[in-house]
Amino acid sequence: MSLTVAPSRGNGYPHPKAVLELLKPVTWFPPMWAFMCGAVSSGYSLNTQFWLVVAGVLLCGPIVCAMSQAVNDWFDRHVDAVNEPNRPIPSGRVPGRWGLYIGIIWTALSLAVAALLGPTVFSATCVGVLLAWFYSAPPIRLKQNGWWGNAAVGACYEGLPWITGASVMAAGGLPHGEVFLIAGLYSVGAHGIMTLNDFKAIEGDTQLGVRTLPVQLGAKRAARLACWVMALAQVAVIGLLALWGTYFYALAVSMVLVVQLLLMKRLLRDPEQYAPWYNATGISLYVTGMLISAFALRGLFIAS
Question: Are the beta carbons of 9 and 92 closer than 8 angstroms?
Fold first, then answer.
């Protein structure tokens, strides 16, 4: 399938409202939340680095995540013309090549802000920026295969922002090894979240050859896989928290997981119908567990 699609027609500049829609503020929450989890998990007082925390939250949400949305919509305009033709680029509200230009400008802004926050933050941002472009842009276009694409998004939405938050609190240095472990596990679990997110576009993805996991495996098998991935990642987190002696927090994450398992039973009855419902309920519990785990690490580092 060719990805050569003519830019949307139109003259002049996009309206600011269309640009904001292109940058999708609703998607900024996960990396901003993960950044805050990283800041909490560092063990440092948030008050001592308040303005750096603000800068880091802005970096993860309105800058890096927004950049990834613009890049994705530009290279996905042929898919959106089928699935969601009212989006800013296929509808022509972001005319010409402005979608691409915005992605490039926000990429430069991401790297510039990250460079001010220390070498670890800059390195993590470089990885995130590269994954965002590799996810959407040919010839790599990781999103063409759900196995690789979901892994890239999981890392960008959970792991890298978490590490960035902890690094900002450590004055730009490397976080503790335990932070990397917990952030990595929640990134793995986010692979399942991304699989459920793909249920909304199965028809268009099938037509256009985008091999998401629901397309490759079918709805029921993909939903079961997503549930297993999310659950096992949290089981590993619980095990580590217990191993490190943070038993109260391990129990709290266990309780959050139990509720998710109950919700998963309903999801698996009809994944295509209940995937949006689970994204609004079960995922909220997942990110609650992230914050609980962050406080567990915080307590662990303060105690030591």
Answer: yes
CA angle 211/217/221 to nearest 5° reads 140
pLDDT tens track for 190-213 = 999 999 988 887 877 887 778 999
CA distance 47 to 53: 9
Q: Nearest 10 degrees: CA dihedral of 303, 177, 166, 108?
A: 170
- DSSP code at position 145: B
Domain ranges of the chain: 17-303
β-strand partners of 96: 8
* One-letter amino acid for residue 44 of the chain: Y
Tokens of 112: 């510039």
CB 239 within 8 A of CB 245: no
10 Å Cβ neighbour count for 301?
A: 17
Distance, in Å, from the CA atom of 108 to the CA atom of 284, rounded to the nearest integer, reads 32
Query: In the CATH scheme, what architecture does the domain 17-303 have?
Result: Orthogonal Bundle (1.10)
Residues 238, 178, 285, 72, CA torsion sign = negative
Residue type, 179: V
What is the pTM assigned to this prediction? Answer: 0.90
Q: Output the CA torsion sign for 193, 140, 38, 47.
A: negative
Closest CA to 300 of 40, 37, 38, 43: 43
C-alpha span between 54 and 39 (Å, rounded) = 11
> By C-alpha distance, which of 166, 156, 212 is closest to 186?
156
Answer yes or no: is pLDDT of 7 > 60.
no
Torsion of CA 126, 131, 137, 142, to 10 degrees: 160
